[in-house]
Amino acid sequence: MTEREPGPSWARDNWPLDELDELNAGLDPTRMTIEKVAAEARETAVASGASAAEVERAANDSICAMMLIRTYRVRGHLAADLDPLGLVQREMPADLTPEFHGFTGDALDRPVWLGGALGLEQASVREVVEILRRNYCGKVGLEYMHINDLEERRFLQERMEGKDAEIVFTPEGKQSILTKVVQAEQWEKFLARKYVGTKRFGLDGGESMVPALEAVIKYGGQYGVVSMVVGMAHRGRLNVLANVMAKPYRAIFSEFAGGSANPEDVGGSGDVKYHLGTSSDREFDGIKVHLSLVPNPSHLEAVDPVVLGKVRAQQISRGDIEGDSVLPVLLHGDAAFAGQGIVSECFGFSGIPGYNTGGCLHFVINNQVGFTTSPQFGRSSPYPSDVAKAVQAPILHVNGDDPEAVTFACKLAIEYRQKFNRDIVIDMWCYRRFGHNEGDEPSFTQPLMYASIRQHPPISALYAARLEEQGVIEKGWVDGEVAAFTTLLEGEFEAARSYLPNKADWFEGAWSGLGRPDEAITERRNVTTGVPEETVREIGAILTNVPPDVAVHKTLLRIIEAKRAMFESGEGLDWATAEALAFGTLLREGHPVRLSGQDSGRGTFSQRHSVWVDQNKGAKYIPLTQIGPARFEVRDSPLSEFGVLGFEYGWSLADPQTLVLWEAQFGDFVNGAQVIIDQFIAAGEAKWLRASGLVLLLPHGYEGQGPEHSSARPERFLQLCADDNMQVANCTTPANYFHILRRQMHRDFRKPLVIMTPKSLLRHKSAVSRLADFTGESHFMRILSDPSPPADADVKRLVLCTGKLAYELIEARDKAGDAETSIVRIEQLYPFPGEALLARLKRMTNLEDVVWAQEEPKNQGYWTHVEPRIERRLGEADLKPKRPIYAGREPAASPATGLAKRHAAEQAALIADALGHSNAPSAQRKAS
Ligand SMILES: Cc1ncc(C[n+]2csc(CCOP(=O)(O)OP(=O)(O)O)c2C)c(N)n1
Prior knowledge:
By secondary structure, the chain is an alpha/beta fold. The chain is built from 30 helices and 24 strands. The protein binds thiamine diphosphate.
């Protein structure tokens, strides 16, 4: 790898001119080609004995015809017949008329030299326009001229363009498309009949999507796809579950009747049926494709990065670098696709090493309305799909009333994706037959549209009439299909009465061997995570070895030397070294490690240096990749939080044996990813029975850096904690950090782990560990004792705290010669180590005061989380103090002051207050 790693192929815009010329010859009139075609036109005219004026006219006609053809390639989609309702008035752009290019009257029928364009040597302009209209202005409109890559353009052009280019399906193919449309329609109707007034967010009006997705699976299988991961919103989800993913009809009926999707004893909150996922295998022509639909929250498009991360993890597990074997498919609503920023973040991944998935197939169910909002109020761009142009993805607009055209578009899309490994979009124009949900009245807001929809025949009727006319089906064929499918559904409906989900599927496949924690959350469920000293030394040697051909920066060399000294003396191991040791030892044990975040390779604070950049060549050397056998990757992520965190969460779902970490640049930036935290990390297991061992590293601490760079908002995470859903920690020693990271992979269950990570402690002289703290029977400590404690019986004041404040408190206490105060650190805030605290409290029989000290304002930080928990343990210990006293900043709107002086004063005051050394605002008063 070098400093300038290859970017996406489409970023290339300096194609060699001869290649340009070759592609453009007769196809894409650049100056060179126009000259060439004009020269040929002249030659042909001369050969036929034309006069000088006629020769010039022939040359001019050719040039104008080339411009006409090019205009159709660029703008033909604007005149495509896309709207089934015909409500969108799309006038034929003037530059798509022959007149615009100078052809009128006789000129329309004069033969023009085309030099091979459209596969023709020569044709009249009338014929040329007729072909171009068929190619570019039919039921499919293609946008592709924004793509730089000539191969891609050629590929798409070849499939769309030419005299004989047509959408062709065999009679059997047409029948099976019609069958799927009928099933999709009847499925919605059946649900509407049986469950009157129940929300289903039906696909009604967009049913052509069903045969089209079938085509993606079928042709995807032929082009090497073995697994397809789907993400989608509410619209049509039940239809996709039933008719594409083959979730048993009876299971869905049972859920409609109020049954749970999982056996009752599994617990969790469950979720509404149109958010649930499923997985199945489908087979076409003997080729099996595994399908999985990822469960998602109501928050539109939030599942997109999760799908992509999951896909990439599966590709990496399969050793598939190109991404051919696992296909991500994202289905979108038009309003959400245009409106939600996460869509752009996900397109942003498509060309980035470490995040791309070899192309995602996007399908927009463009029903031309979002709840009650019409498109002109929902977006500024002509199409909902324009966001895809940022990465030069081709876009196929297609009329949803023509299921053949939609199926053709999907077939082309999967072929393109498998060939070029790039994203592609299908924008299916359709309509929503009912309201946003079936109980919702659409005519309040879209009366004209709905007057038209009421008159509009279903897709099956339109398509059946066409096939009857073509002699592909007999009259009455559809009735037979309807009857057969309804009988099937009635049978399934009956079977649903006694249907019981047999087992939850969450600990299968990659998750087998893992389960739920057996122990109650208050019990100690620690595991020994110490490693043999020899292993530490071996890894230390690799971490500090500079290969002779790597010229590292001179400051880095000093850092490496200091690290070597740590290993040699077995003393003073710092934070970054502990982290590298955690990674290295896990790699040794066969657990891959993936760390992703902004500037994570070096580390925001220049602390990590996991990537060494050769100062002469710009090449990268990553010591942790030399450890093996498992794979280490550290990725400098794009500047996104929502997208990247979602991606890493998706990875953690697919691959529980990899330690997956996401790091925020500063902890406060995590707020941009709040949707992923609320909807997936905190609640995913409860809602969908999907566990995750994802780790979040959030730099946090009050160091006078102002409101934004001080707080990772631990209070938000703690407020989300319940039901043993995740872990929140703030570690203060390198060894404890080492152990908590290793523990993540060493237990037989997985829970997300949120760590408030330090900034000043990265280089604090006391925040170091000894080599012995990493070895033998050592393990993660949920509570850390005072390093210089008074005897238990002497302790009058117990100060509880977490994070780097502990070091400041200890220093101040020691400086004051205070021999009655003990400072104890709560390293894991949730699950709260209450019983371990109780054991300590019971030993401190002469306690007068128990204080909770924090740097964060009182309405933030940990106080509201810890107060009742400490109070409970004080009660159980039956000590004199009944409640903890608060010592910290007053409630505040802003997390911290921006003024360094004020910060220092506040910090000094709260430390003095916590220790009871001040006459300043009494801790007692604050507690009231
Ligand atoms: C982030 C987010 N904001 C708002 C909503 C509420 N909401 C649900 S569906 C919907 C309209 C979606 O329109 P569109 O994407 O076009 O899909 P359609 O329902 O038309 O299929 C809205 C606003 C939501 N689910 N998620």
